[in-house]
Amino acid sequence: MYASQPGIGKALLRGMVLLSVIALAASFAAAQPAGTPDSTAVKGTPQPMAAPHGVAPEPDHSGVLSNRWDQLPPGEISYFRPHDARGLNMFESPKHEGIPYTGNKIQWGAAFAQQFQHLTHDNSAVPVIVGGVDKNQLIDIGPGFNNADANLFLDAQIERGIRVALTLYLSSRHHNETWVKDGFIQFDGSPIDHPVLNSWMKYLTLKAGHFEINYGDQHFRDSDNGNTVFNPFVGNLIMRGFTTEIGAELYYRTGPWMAMGGMTGGEIHGQVTQPEHRTPTYLGKGGFDSQISPALRVRLTGSVYRNAKTVGNTLYSGSRAGSRYYDVLENTQSTESAQAWSGEIQPGFTERVTAFVANPFIKFKGLELFGNIEQAEGGGPAELANRKWRQNAGEAVYRIFHEQLYGGFRFDRASGVPAGLTQNVTVDRMQYAGGWYLTPRLLGKLEYVRQLYMDYPATDIHAGGVFQGFMFEGVVAF
């Protein structure tokens, strides 16, 4: 039986945080040479950033396949994160124009992903017979192809500094039919040509609509249904903080620093009924992202999400794409869509939730270190007291051959009290992965995953649970 080793994850995360602090101190020391004042700065006048916010230096793609990178069209949209590998290690969309405005433009894109799954699973739960069926007997699974996933992107530049985005899920695990993921408008320029407004918009970004909320940094590295080019692994985190809500986020960015405040309706659907059971959600994010040297980039952010009352919050259940691990630790009645989140933890904070997450990121040459240190508490409508969950995850990825080949490892631990239980449980996941960007729009990756369920009661299907095996995924995104 697997022996729990909590020191591994904690040591990795502590080391990443320590490296972030050291690098931050180094950035301050390197920002201004001692005894050399900045003679070009004028007090009160904004200075141009040394590098675009949130964007690492362009990787060196000279050599193998260089022509495929060089021949990519520049695109049509400003202040925009590309859907292909050029958006790798971008987080928030950049606060620089990028593509000069030459008039209104429309740009279509798409992403398609297909997985081959070869997983096994087992448990030690005692039989529980309901209606003549043992609800703790696992469904038989074997090697085979998962349902293909597809996204369709529509991006439009409607004015200088103003763009609109729409994402459709053409096929996903939970919704095999076409499904609108999100749509929003983003202002990085003023719609009114006025000197004061233009000056403010050098630092401000306003995003409004029904969109993927900016809670934490992990969602920028996740697989998003058909688009998985930003995720070095096949699966996402055990407890995925990802949802779409209706509202607005306002950003202030200057140099490497960022602050964001937002308010949403707190639910994945717009609602006007039952107002006594509904309050707004407030979220915030702050941090820095500094390219300290050509070889070293450091980013550290903290996010908070707070909803006091809602009819159906989905912070940890808002992904309609579902899990990449089909039917693991599910009983014989499992179906692809009804059990779409197999292998993930949904804590059941449907009425109220308060969540915090810190995300350190360090990139030194080809090495990337990323952490997710998270705590959440809340409950459902029938619960008088809050339950708590914690999730600590750390990953290391190393990219070689001009960042076209990579290998990576992730350790993820989630622990807390599930809905309907009174005891604390723990779920550990280890992922080993490797991938090859054949072109910036074509990626193949292989993952070995092992996930263990600990401290569940014997009458729960997860008692003594484990699933493990290999996943292969191919993706094209443009």
Structural summary, described in words:
With 478 residues, the chain is mostly beta strands. It contains 3 helices and 19 strands. The chain has one domain: Beta Barrel (Porin), CATH 2.40.160. A hairpin with a 2-residue loop joins strand 2 and strand 3 (133-134). The longest helix has 26 residues, at 6-31. The model is unreliable at 1-67 (pLDDT under 50).
CATH topology annotation: Porin
The radius of gyration is 23 Å
Oligomeric description of these chains: single chain
Number of helices: 3
CATH class equals: Mainly Beta
Helix and strand element order:
HHEEEEEEEHEEEEEEEEEEEE
* Main sheet characteristics: 16 strands, antiparallel, barrel
Mean pLDDT: 88
**Strand percent estimate:** 35-45%
| Terminal CA distance | 44 Å
How much helix is in the residues?
Answer: under 10%
Order of strands, widest sheet:
1-5-6-7-8-9-10-11-12-13-14-15-16-17-18-19
Shape: globular
The fourth-level CATH homologous superfamily is Porin
How many distinct beta strands? 19
- The structural class is mainly beta
Low-confidence stretches: 1-67
How many distinct folded domains?
A: 1
**CATH architecture group name:** Beta Barrel
In terms of topology, how is this protein built?
Blueprint: H1 6-31, H2 66-70, E1 105-122, E2 129-130, E3 133-134, E4 144-145, E5 149-159, E6 162-171, E7 179-187, H3 195-200, E8 204-212, E9 244-254, E10 257-264, E11 281-293, E12 296-307, E13 352-364, E14 367-379, E15 387-400, E16 405-416, E17 425-439, E18 442-454, E19 466-477
Antiparallel strand pairs: 1-4, 1-5, 1-19, 2-3, 5-6, 6-7, 7-8, 8-9, 9-10, 10-11, 11-12, 12-13, 13-14, 14-15, 15-16, 16-17, 17-18, 18-19
